[in-house]
Recover the amino acids of this structure.
């Protein structure tokens, strides 16, 4: 299955993707995670991406499309993949269509919908594990011990772009550059919108229904 998770910053794409890929047995491809890994390793890609990410702006399309083209050409993507955070401009969506021409195109684009005021609370209260990348929230998905990851014991940190000012920029960028993809994929007949403003498990159940999966 070739799936795209669409939705504004904080909608829960990463949270849902982490669980979904274990059920669907496809790789989780998050451009945000790839850029953060590049920043940690200090590669030229990381240096370039950091300048944009810290301001809440998008990394240029040529760069982003290039890393996705390489990634989905890997053997583990032969049976499909789950894209999280890509595409997020019309140019990226068109480039993806070209990459998938002859491969049957996308099976589903799931738009996770959450009201704007809730997104700000979600993003500013998010904490991430430095070691395994697990996603927490101080109120909605709190770790048992403060600042310690439940699953690996790693240290939790706040993403550099999760401060309120940058969050507002990111939400603005989403409205201007990414929201038009809703219409783009509606026209292609592959878009399904689900309610992301409910408990994490309830969102997962709705996602399963949208993908025609029955997890009980
Ligand atoms: P990226 O890492 O993709 O960030 P984003 O799209 O802004 O999305 P987030 O990761 O912030 O949110 P999410 O939807 O994954 O939510 P999460 O599950 O964590 O991109 C970062 C940057 O990289 C971009 O700004 C850009 O610079 C660059 N970039 C990346 N891709 C790019 C591209 N294609 N082109 C150009 N540039 C690109 O959940 C959020 C919080 O809410 C967590 O605390 C979680 O615990 C909580 N939560 C989740 N679900 C629920 C729920 N149901 N109820 C209550 N709380 C919940
Ligand atoms: Mg994410
Ligand atoms: Zn961890």
């Amino acid at each position: 299955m070739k799936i795209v998770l669409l939705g504004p910053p904080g909608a829960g794409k990463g949270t849902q993707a982490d669980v979904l890929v274990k059920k669907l047995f496809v790789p989780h491809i998050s451009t945000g995670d790839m850029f953060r890994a590049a920043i940690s390793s200090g590669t030229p890609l990381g240096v370039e991406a950091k300048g944009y990410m810290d301001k809440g702006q998008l990394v240029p399309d040529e760069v982003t499309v290039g890393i996705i083209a390489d990634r989905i050409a890997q053997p583990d993507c032969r049976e499909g993949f789950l894209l999280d955070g890509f595409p997020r401009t019309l140019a990226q969506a068109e480039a993806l269509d070209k990459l998938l021409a002859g491969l049957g195109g996308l099976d589903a684009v799931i738009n996770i919908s959450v009201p704007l005021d809730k997104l700000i609370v979600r993003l500013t209260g998010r904490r991430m594990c430095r070691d395994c990348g697990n996603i927490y929230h101080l109120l909605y998905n709190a770790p048992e011990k403060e600042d310690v990851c439940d699953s690996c014991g790693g240290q939790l940190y706040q993403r550099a772009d999760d401060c309120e000012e940058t969050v507002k920029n990111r939400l603005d960028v989403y409205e201007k550059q990414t929201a038009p993809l809703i219409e783009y994929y509606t026209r292609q007949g592959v878009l399904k919108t689900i309610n992301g403003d409910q408990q994490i498990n309830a969102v997962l159940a709705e996602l399963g229904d949208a993908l025609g999966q029955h997890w009980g």
